[in-house]
Design goal:
The protein is an alpha+beta fold and 355 residues long. It folds into three domains: 84 residues, Rossmann fold (3-Layer(aba) Sandwich); 61 residues, 2-Layer Sandwich (Dna Ligase, domain 1); 163 residues, 2-Layer Sandwich (D-amino Acid Aminotransferase, Chain A, domain 1). The chain contains eleven helices and 17 strands. The strands form three sheets. Strands 9, 10, 11, 12, 13, 14, 15, 16 and 17 form a nine-stranded antiparallel beta sheet that branches. The protein has a four-stranded parallel beta sheet with strand order 3-2-1-4, with helices on both faces. The chain starts with a strand and ends in an 11-residue tail after the last strand. The C terminus is likely disordered.
Length: 355
Protein backbone atom coordinates (compact mmCIF):
# COMPACT_ATOMS: atom_id res chain seq x y z
CA UNK A 1 0.00 0.00 0.00
CA UNK A 2 1.04 3.58 -0.57
CA UNK A 3 2.55 5.33 2.44
CA UNK A 4 0.30 7.96 4.01
CA UNK A 5 1.59 11.13 5.67
CA UNK A 6 -0.70 13.28 7.78
CA UNK A 7 0.02 17.01 7.85
CA UNK A 8 -1.12 19.49 10.47
CA UNK A 9 -1.98 22.51 8.34
CA UNK A 10 -3.34 22.76 4.83
CA UNK A 11 -1.58 25.80 3.37
CA UNK A 12 0.87 26.11 0.52
CA UNK A 13 3.65 24.22 2.29
CA UNK A 14 1.34 21.24 2.80
CA UNK A 15 0.27 21.57 -0.84
CA UNK A 16 3.89 21.37 -2.02
CA UNK A 17 4.61 18.46 0.31
CA UNK A 18 1.66 16.57 -1.17
CA UNK A 19 2.79 17.34 -4.72
CA UNK A 20 6.30 16.11 -3.91
CA UNK A 21 4.84 12.85 -2.68
CA UNK A 22 2.94 12.03 -5.89
CA UNK A 23 5.92 10.74 -7.94
CA UNK A 24 6.93 8.54 -4.99
CA UNK A 25 3.47 7.09 -4.50
CA UNK A 26 3.11 8.86 -1.15
CA UNK A 27 -0.38 10.10 -0.26
CA UNK A 28 -0.93 13.06 2.06
CA UNK A 29 -3.86 13.95 4.30
CA UNK A 30 -4.12 17.43 5.79
CA UNK A 31 -5.96 18.78 8.81
CA UNK A 32 -6.99 22.41 8.53
CA UNK A 33 -10.03 24.30 9.86
CA UNK A 34 -10.35 26.42 6.70
CA UNK A 35 -12.97 25.17 4.20
CA UNK A 36 -10.82 26.51 1.34
CA UNK A 37 -7.44 25.16 2.48
CA UNK A 38 -5.30 25.28 -0.64
CA UNK A 39 -3.74 21.85 -0.03
CA UNK A 40 -7.21 20.30 -0.34
CA UNK A 41 -6.83 20.43 -4.13
CA UNK A 42 -4.08 17.80 -3.98
CA UNK A 43 -4.64 15.96 -0.68
CA UNK A 44 -7.44 14.56 1.44
CA UNK A 45 -8.76 17.36 3.65
CA UNK A 46 -9.91 16.82 7.22
CA UNK A 47 -11.71 20.05 8.06
CA UNK A 48 -11.42 20.44 11.81
CA UNK A 49 -9.82 22.62 14.45
CA UNK A 50 -6.22 21.75 15.29
CA UNK A 51 -7.25 20.66 18.79
CA UNK A 52 -10.35 18.71 17.73
CA UNK A 53 -9.97 15.13 19.04
CA UNK A 54 -12.07 13.56 16.27
CA UNK A 55 -10.20 15.46 13.59
CA UNK A 56 -6.83 14.47 15.03
CA UNK A 57 -7.93 10.84 15.19
CA UNK A 58 -8.98 10.96 11.54
CA UNK A 59 -5.63 12.51 10.57
CA UNK A 60 -3.80 9.68 12.32
CA UNK A 61 -6.04 6.89 11.03
CA UNK A 62 -3.92 4.67 8.78
CA UNK A 63 -1.10 7.22 8.58
CA UNK A 64 2.51 6.04 8.58
CA UNK A 65 3.70 9.36 10.01
CA UNK A 66 2.38 12.81 10.84
CA UNK A 67 4.22 16.09 10.34
CA UNK A 68 3.32 19.78 10.38
CA UNK A 69 3.63 22.64 7.88
CA UNK A 70 3.85 25.52 10.36
CA UNK A 71 4.91 25.81 13.98
CA UNK A 72 1.89 27.55 15.48
CA UNK A 73 -0.22 24.41 15.68
CA UNK A 74 -0.94 23.43 19.31
CA UNK A 75 1.88 21.37 20.79
CA UNK A 76 -0.81 19.43 22.67
CA UNK A 77 -2.19 18.27 19.31
CA UNK A 78 1.21 16.84 18.35
CA UNK A 79 1.46 15.16 21.75
CA UNK A 80 -1.98 13.56 21.31
CA UNK A 81 -1.08 12.32 17.86
CA UNK A 82 2.24 10.89 19.05
CA UNK A 83 0.32 8.40 21.22
CA UNK A 84 -1.12 6.86 18.04
CA UNK A 85 1.35 7.50 15.24
CA UNK A 86 4.94 8.57 14.65
CA UNK A 87 5.14 12.38 14.71
CA UNK A 88 8.16 13.88 12.96
CA UNK A 89 9.68 16.29 13.77
CA UNK A 90 9.02 15.55 17.41
CA UNK A 91 6.74 17.66 19.62
CA UNK A 92 9.98 18.84 21.30
CA UNK A 93 11.11 20.64 18.14
CA UNK A 94 7.65 22.13 17.81
CA UNK A 95 7.56 23.37 21.41
CA UNK A 96 11.01 25.01 21.19
CA UNK A 97 10.12 26.86 18.00
CA UNK A 98 6.89 28.19 19.53
CA UNK A 99 8.67 30.15 22.25
CA UNK A 100 11.41 32.61 21.29
CA UNK A 101 12.86 32.47 24.80
CA UNK A 102 13.17 28.66 24.66
CA UNK A 103 14.73 29.05 21.22
CA UNK A 104 17.31 31.56 22.44
CA UNK A 105 18.16 29.38 25.42
CA UNK A 106 18.70 26.45 23.06
CA UNK A 107 21.04 28.57 20.93
CA UNK A 108 22.97 29.61 24.04
CA UNK A 109 23.29 25.99 25.19
CA UNK A 110 24.68 24.98 21.79
CA UNK A 111 27.00 28.00 21.40
CA UNK A 112 25.04 29.20 18.40
CA UNK A 113 25.84 32.95 18.15
CA UNK A 114 22.87 35.33 18.32
CA UNK A 115 22.26 39.05 18.70
CA UNK A 116 22.26 40.20 22.34
CA UNK A 117 18.87 39.52 23.92
CA UNK A 118 16.97 39.87 27.18
CA UNK A 119 13.68 38.41 28.39
CA UNK A 120 10.85 40.82 29.16
CA UNK A 121 8.19 39.39 31.45
CA UNK A 122 6.55 42.73 32.19
CA UNK A 123 6.93 46.48 31.63
CA UNK A 124 9.21 46.65 34.67
CA UNK A 125 11.83 44.70 32.67
CA UNK A 126 11.97 47.07 29.70
CA UNK A 127 14.53 49.53 31.05
CA UNK A 128 16.98 46.76 31.97
CA UNK A 129 16.40 45.03 28.63
CA UNK A 130 17.33 48.16 26.69
CA UNK A 131 20.47 48.56 28.81
CA UNK A 132 21.50 45.02 27.92
CA UNK A 133 20.76 45.03 24.18
CA UNK A 134 21.12 48.75 23.42
CA UNK A 135 19.00 50.85 21.09
CA UNK A 136 17.56 50.62 18.61
CA UNK A 137 16.14 47.32 19.82
CA UNK A 138 13.55 44.92 18.47
CA UNK A 139 10.77 43.79 20.80
CA UNK A 140 9.22 40.49 19.75
CA UNK A 141 6.35 38.49 21.17
CA UNK A 142 7.62 35.16 22.39
CA UNK A 143 4.79 33.25 20.76
CA UNK A 144 2.76 33.40 17.53
CA UNK A 145 4.99 35.78 15.58
CA UNK A 146 5.42 35.35 11.82
CA UNK A 147 6.10 37.39 8.66
CA UNK A 148 6.97 40.51 10.63
CA UNK A 149 3.93 40.27 12.90
CA UNK A 150 4.40 40.52 16.65
CA UNK A 151 7.43 42.81 16.69
CA UNK A 152 8.32 46.48 17.01
CA UNK A 153 11.54 48.48 16.67
CA UNK A 154 12.05 50.88 19.60
CA UNK A 155 14.65 53.53 20.40
CA UNK A 156 13.67 54.57 23.93
CA UNK A 157 11.96 53.35 27.08
CA UNK A 158 8.88 55.42 26.21
CA UNK A 159 8.64 53.71 22.81
CA UNK A 160 9.18 50.35 24.50
CA UNK A 161 6.28 50.98 26.87
CA UNK A 162 4.06 51.90 23.94
CA UNK A 163 5.17 48.74 22.12
CA UNK A 164 4.44 46.63 25.21
CA UNK A 165 0.80 47.73 25.06
CA UNK A 166 0.60 47.50 21.26
CA UNK A 167 1.94 43.96 21.26
CA UNK A 168 -0.74 42.84 23.69
CA UNK A 169 1.02 43.16 27.07
CA UNK A 170 2.39 39.63 26.71
CA UNK A 171 5.89 38.29 27.48
CA UNK A 172 8.44 39.60 25.00
CA UNK A 173 12.02 39.16 23.92
CA UNK A 174 14.21 42.22 23.43
CA UNK A 175 16.98 41.87 20.85
CA UNK A 176 19.73 44.13 19.57
CA UNK A 177 18.79 45.41 16.15
CA UNK A 178 21.52 44.02 13.93
CA UNK A 179 22.98 46.28 11.20
CA UNK A 180 23.43 43.22 9.00
CA UNK A 181 24.93 43.23 5.53
CA UNK A 182 22.47 40.56 4.38
CA UNK A 183 20.01 37.94 5.56
CA UNK A 184 20.77 34.28 4.88
CA UNK A 185 19.21 30.94 5.62
CA UNK A 186 20.40 27.38 5.61
CA UNK A 187 18.13 24.38 5.24
CA UNK A 188 19.28 21.14 6.79
CA UNK A 189 17.58 17.77 6.99
CA UNK A 190 18.03 14.76 9.25
CA UNK A 191 16.78 11.27 8.49
CA UNK A 192 15.34 8.77 10.92
CA UNK A 193 18.69 6.96 10.82
CA UNK A 194 20.57 10.10 11.91
CA UNK A 195 21.98 10.89 8.45
CA UNK A 196 22.08 14.62 7.69
CA UNK A 197 22.36 16.80 4.61
CA UNK A 198 22.28 20.52 3.84
CA UNK A 199 21.35 22.67 0.87
CA UNK A 200 23.51 25.62 -0.19
CA UNK A 201 23.07 28.85 1.74
CA UNK A 202 20.37 31.14 0.39
CA UNK A 203 20.35 34.94 0.46
CA UNK A 204 16.99 36.49 1.34
CA UNK A 205 15.48 39.93 0.87
CA UNK A 206 12.48 40.96 2.95
CA UNK A 207 10.02 43.79 2.56
CA UNK A 208 7.73 44.70 5.43
CA UNK A 209 8.84 41.60 7.30
CA UNK A 210 7.78 39.29 4.43
CA UNK A 211 10.25 37.37 2.29
CA UNK A 212 10.16 38.74 -1.28
CA UNK A 213 13.18 37.20 -3.00
CA UNK A 214 15.66 34.41 -2.43
CA UNK A 215 18.87 33.84 -4.37
CA UNK A 216 20.54 30.45 -4.10
CA UNK A 217 23.28 29.51 -3.76
CA UNK A 218 24.08 32.77 -1.99
CA UNK A 219 26.88 34.69 -3.73
CA UNK A 220 30.24 34.90 -1.96
CA UNK A 221 29.26 32.38 0.69
CA UNK A 222 32.79 31.00 1.08
CA UNK A 223 33.43 29.61 4.54
CA UNK A 224 29.98 30.71 5.71
CA UNK A 225 28.53 27.60 4.08
CA UNK A 226 30.39 25.20 6.36
CA UNK A 227 29.75 27.38 9.40
CA UNK A 228 26.01 27.53 8.73
CA UNK A 229 25.79 23.78 8.09
CA UNK A 230 27.61 23.07 11.35
CA UNK A 231 25.17 25.25 13.32
CA UNK A 232 22.20 23.60 11.67
CA UNK A 233 23.46 20.09 12.33
CA UNK A 234 24.16 20.97 15.98
CA UNK A 235 20.50 21.92 16.40
CA UNK A 236 19.24 18.86 14.52
CA UNK A 237 21.16 16.51 16.75
CA UNK A 238 20.32 18.26 20.03
CA UNK A 239 16.59 18.12 19.27
CA UNK A 240 16.78 14.62 17.75
CA UNK A 241 14.98 16.36 14.89
CA UNK A 242 13.80 14.24 11.94
CA UNK A 243 12.86 16.22 8.86
CA UNK A 244 13.81 19.58 7.38
CA UNK A 245 14.82 22.50 9.61
CA UNK A 246 15.53 26.06 8.50
CA UNK A 247 17.93 28.35 10.35
CA UNK A 248 17.53 32.04 9.54
CA UNK A 249 20.73 34.06 9.89
CA UNK A 250 22.17 37.55 9.77
CA UNK A 251 25.61 38.24 8.32
CA UNK A 252 27.30 41.02 10.28
CA UNK A 253 30.93 41.92 9.61
CA UNK A 254 31.55 38.54 8.01
CA UNK A 255 30.12 36.48 10.88
CA UNK A 256 26.83 34.65 11.24
CA UNK A 257 24.24 35.37 13.90
CA UNK A 258 21.20 33.11 14.31
CA UNK A 259 17.85 34.90 14.17
CA UNK A 260 15.37 32.05 14.49
CA UNK A 261 14.68 28.49 13.46
CA UNK A 262 11.72 26.90 11.71
CA UNK A 263 11.33 23.15 12.32
CA UNK A 264 9.78 22.49 8.91
CA UNK A 265 10.04 23.16 5.21
CA UNK A 266 10.58 26.86 4.61
CA UNK A 267 9.75 29.63 2.15
CA UNK A 268 13.44 30.30 1.45
CA UNK A 269 13.80 26.73 0.22
CA UNK A 270 11.19 26.88 -2.56
CA UNK A 271 13.99 27.20 -5.12
CA UNK A 272 14.94 23.59 -4.39
CA UNK A 273 11.91 22.28 -6.32
CA UNK A 274 13.60 23.08 -9.62
CA UNK A 275 17.06 23.98 -8.40
CA UNK A 276 18.27 21.01 -6.34
CA UNK A 277 18.70 17.32 -6.99
CA UNK A 278 16.17 16.64 -4.22
CA UNK A 279 13.76 19.35 -3.08
CA UNK A 280 13.20 20.25 0.56
CA UNK A 281 9.67 18.87 0.24
CA UNK A 282 10.70 15.46 -1.07
CA UNK A 283 13.49 15.12 1.50
CA UNK A 284 11.12 16.05 4.32
CA UNK A 285 8.75 13.27 3.27
CA UNK A 286 11.64 10.85 2.92
CA UNK A 287 12.85 11.72 6.40
CA UNK A 288 9.53 11.46 8.23
CA UNK A 289 8.83 8.09 6.57
CA UNK A 290 12.29 6.71 7.41
CA UNK A 291 13.39 6.58 3.77
CA UNK A 292 16.94 7.39 2.58
CA UNK A 293 17.65 11.07 2.04
CA UNK A 294 18.29 12.41 -1.45
CA UNK A 295 21.21 14.55 -2.60
CA UNK A 296 20.91 18.27 -1.89
CA UNK A 297 23.23 19.44 -4.68
CA UNK A 298 22.25 22.68 -6.44
CA UNK A 299 21.51 22.44 -10.16
CA UNK A 300 22.81 25.86 -11.09
CA UNK A 301 21.83 29.16 -9.53
CA UNK A 302 18.24 30.24 -8.92
CA UNK A 303 16.11 33.16 -7.84
CA UNK A 304 12.72 32.76 -6.18
CA UNK A 305 10.17 35.58 -6.02
CA UNK A 306 7.14 35.43 -3.75
CA UNK A 307 3.88 36.60 -5.30
CA UNK A 308 1.89 38.63 -2.80
CA UNK A 309 -1.68 39.87 -2.91
CA UNK A 310 -2.95 39.71 -6.49
CA UNK A 311 -0.44 37.97 -8.78
CA UNK A 312 0.34 39.22 -12.31
CA UNK A 313 -1.61 37.53 -15.12
CA UNK A 314 -0.43 34.01 -15.89
CA UNK A 315 0.73 34.84 -19.46
CA UNK A 316 2.95 37.56 -18.03
CA UNK A 317 4.47 35.20 -15.47
CA UNK A 318 5.03 32.47 -18.05
CA UNK A 319 6.68 35.00 -20.35
CA UNK A 320 9.59 35.46 -17.97
CA UNK A 321 12.76 33.69 -19.22
CA UNK A 322 13.05 30.23 -17.70
CA UNK A 323 10.17 30.84 -15.30
CA UNK A 324 8.64 28.06 -13.21
CA UNK A 325 5.30 29.30 -11.87
CA UNK A 326 3.67 27.97 -8.70
CA UNK A 327 0.22 29.35 -7.90
CA UNK A 328 -1.32 28.18 -4.66
CA UNK A 329 -5.01 28.57 -5.46
CA UNK A 330 -5.49 31.08 -2.64
CA UNK A 331 -7.86 34.04 -2.75
CA UNK A 332 -5.95 37.31 -3.23
CA UNK A 333 -5.48 39.47 -0.15
CA UNK A 334 -2.99 42.29 0.50
CA UNK A 335 0.32 40.85 1.73
CA UNK A 336 -0.85 37.23 1.33
CA UNK A 337 1.52 34.73 -0.28
CA UNK A 338 -0.44 33.44 -3.26
CA UNK A 339 2.37 31.88 -5.27
CA UNK A 340 6.01 32.02 -6.25
CA UNK A 341 8.15 32.01 -9.37
CA UNK A 342 11.59 30.47 -9.68
CA UNK A 343 13.97 31.12 -12.53
CA UNK A 344 17.65 30.57 -13.35
CA UNK A 345 19.77 33.37 -11.96
CA UNK A 346 22.94 34.87 -13.39
CA UNK A 347 24.96 37.90 -12.38
CA UNK A 348 28.08 39.26 -14.00
CA UNK A 349 31.11 38.89 -11.81
CA UNK A 350 29.53 36.44 -9.39
CA UNK A 351 31.38 33.14 -9.08
CA UNK A 352 29.10 30.22 -9.89
CA UNK A 353 30.41 28.00 -7.12
CA UNK A 354 27.44 25.67 -6.70
CA UNK A 355 27.54 22.26 -5.17
Amino acid sequence: MSPVVGILGGGQLARMLALAGVPLGIRCRVLDPAPDACAAAVAEHVQAAYDDPAGLDRLADGADAVTFEFENVPAAAAERLSARVTVRPSPTSLAVSQDRLAEKRLFAELDVPTPDWHAVDGPQDLARALEVVGVPAVLKTRRLGYDGHGQRVVASRAEALEAWDALGAVPLLAERRVPFSRELSVLVVRGADGATAAWPLAENRHEGGILRRTTAPAPDRGSLQGEAEALGRRILERLDHVGVLALELFEEDGRLLADELAPRVHNSGHWTIEGATTSQFENHLRAVLGLPLGATTARGAWEMENLLGTPPPLPELLGRPGAHVHLYGKAPRPGRKVGHVTSPWTSAGVARDVR
